[in-house]
């Protein structure tokens, strides 16, 4: 049984992703991040537990390792991943529910990716149902897209729909570590928060590391945050994680918050995204046009240099942080 | 991402590198195979779920079975039942569980094709027989060591399933596949689901159920009394009852509890196991289905019926066929039963009687080859497998009996479809000569709807003796053309084979339509298929 492990991305897939089409890296990352956030928001509105929503996040990440980002509308892919994960779970959701939720989330009426400083009263006044109520024909076309992409996802994943989440492992490991002598909720909550945030990381941590490594890294980060004293020895070895991978994951998880703020904040990768809600393909295409990139870019050489640069940044961050 | 790559390079012997070495093959993440990766050798059977083809992998050369997943253009997308089966099979890994090796996709041919969606196939290893078909073969007689060997493997597989919280819910001889190396594998997880209760523990029987499931599962002849009485909070014990039925079937060579309706099924169960009392089936009166029935008191007759197989066999059978699902033996304990520790001892899979087996194999292969015939050339007759010939033979004789027989318990592959068990003997005369063509081929332009099943021979290229293998092995169905495919699809009267019996609703309607499906009229067949589709949809609801 491979209940405990996940299929991981191959180095070729990761590299290929970085050279897919004309999309500059920061655009890819923004799309990935936006779609994963959208999936999380939809999971909440569909009243699905995080154990299902997070699986949808992982399946979405797996899918985008195999198929190009721009092939479908991002929100549609997110909806398909959400729909098929729920279908396989104990709490399936009807296409109609999924449609309603996504129609709302991508509409201007929702608060998703819209500035919160908008006065709530004004937002309520604008709460105009037709903006997110779809007509029957709109629903039909959404439904058709949903099923078409669902089939695409299954095909791309070769039906490897099983996702082993690290959350239960993290709790088990914490129990084994006696919660590092901290109050149980404090440290467990923090560790799970790291795991949930890692789902959004454009580094695709869930596709590059097995659940046990993610769980250990989350515990390590949580312990540092709450000031718990970790065992002196190389305790991660007990959980089959080596130091190098742990280091990589610790930095990866720590960088998400700052990175997310940056991308939503001052340093916009896409002009005019701010306050416009969910990122759409059209926005990305306009951005590409604005930058003068039309088709498949010839930046194959830059990719490696760029990766090296990003790596250096991360290492610097790690050193600075510790 | 180069961090990862560097890690790949410098592998110290750490737990992690061990884990890497043992994780899923990376290739499992590259999407599905193409149908062109397989050389399709011919159709094995056809069911509600889809057709089954025999094929050879071009990569490994291994023989595989391709099970087509029928997409009904459902409004809920990819069928959840197929998804569940795929997901379960991908998680399982045991020598006695049929392995899902791959998923293959067939893209529709470009513009001319109306079917827009690609077709998916599940790829499993090719197994030579199913137990139902094997038992049905008059030239095969199971020895006691052989039965013990199969039983051990069946129980090992089931122990693994139950330990991993999986209910099979369609245990029956036709779902047990056997290859020529003597390996038995449990197949067909279309009704299987995750089990929420506690896993069986030694000496604890099936334990108590924790939550409700649908009671519309398991083929009737293998359905335990608690399901017939509509217990919803059932346990892994429902699969153990099926094991008991299969065990008895191996001992006597035919299904031991072949009920004609749900009520009749209960009748014959009580006839064999005794009528229910508060001692042998505590709480049976409070089951929803028990209100309407008033079984007359009867003693248990297992030792009378199976006494000739020895007291130890009777003892195991009695444990498996206990009316009380809580104390019915579980797979762990059954494996420890004295039956497997008394002479004659169980055979090893490799040392099963090779003489009979190889003889059987030759026959099977011959049947396969004929089953794999290409569709007849245009204007000719549709190529049908020889099994249809024999089926039609007894279909004409038995009529209704045949329909009901297959409606409930069709073999996995059509060549194995079993006959209605005659009242007295197990080998009817007309069955014995189903080997080589007993009749000369009819003329090429034989009418399509001739009641005689041998009409297929008309379209077949002539061949001499046992030869003619080449014309089949090199045959690759043209997946790109619509016409021949539709023709093959039309032959719906063979749907009974692959997994029709998994349908939970074996009501009279199903039986009736099954019987009617023997009709030779293509129009009726089409209507038939529509109805199947409806029923399919109904069934999907039950599986939730």
Automatic annotation (TrEMBL), chain A:
Gene3D superfamilies: Cyclin-like. GO terms for molecular function: cyclin-dependent protein serine/threonine kinase regulator activity. One of its GO terms (biological process) is regulation of transcription by RNA polymerase II. This is Cyclin-L2. It comes from Canariomyces notabilis.
Automatic annotation (TrEMBL), chain B:
The keyword Kinase applies. It is found in: Nucleus. Residues 392-410 have a biased composition (Gly residues). GO terms for molecular function: ATP binding; cyclin-dependent protein serine/threonine kinase activity; RNA polymerase II CTD heptapeptide repeat kinase activity. Residues 370-544 are annotated as: Disordered. GO terms for cellular component: nucleus. SUPFAM superfamilies: Protein kinase-like (PK-like). Residues 38-340 form the Protein kinase domain. ATP binds at residue 67. Keywords: ATP-binding, Kinase, Nucleotide-binding, Nucleus, Serine/threonine-protein kinase, Transferase. Residues 447-459, 479-511, 523-544 have a biased composition (Basic and acidic residues). Its EC number is 2.7.11.22, 2.7.11.23. It catalyses: L-threonyl-[protein] + ATP = O-phospho-L-threonyl-[protein] + ADP + H(+); [DNA-directed RNA polymerase] + ATP = phospho-[DNA-directed RNA polymerase] + ADP + H(+); L-seryl-[protein] + ATP = O-phospho-L-seryl-[protein] + ADP + H(+). The keyword Cell inner membrane does not apply. Belongs to the protein kinase superfamily. CMGC Ser/Thr protein kinase family. CDC2/CDKX subfamily. This is Serine/threonine-protein kinase BUR1.
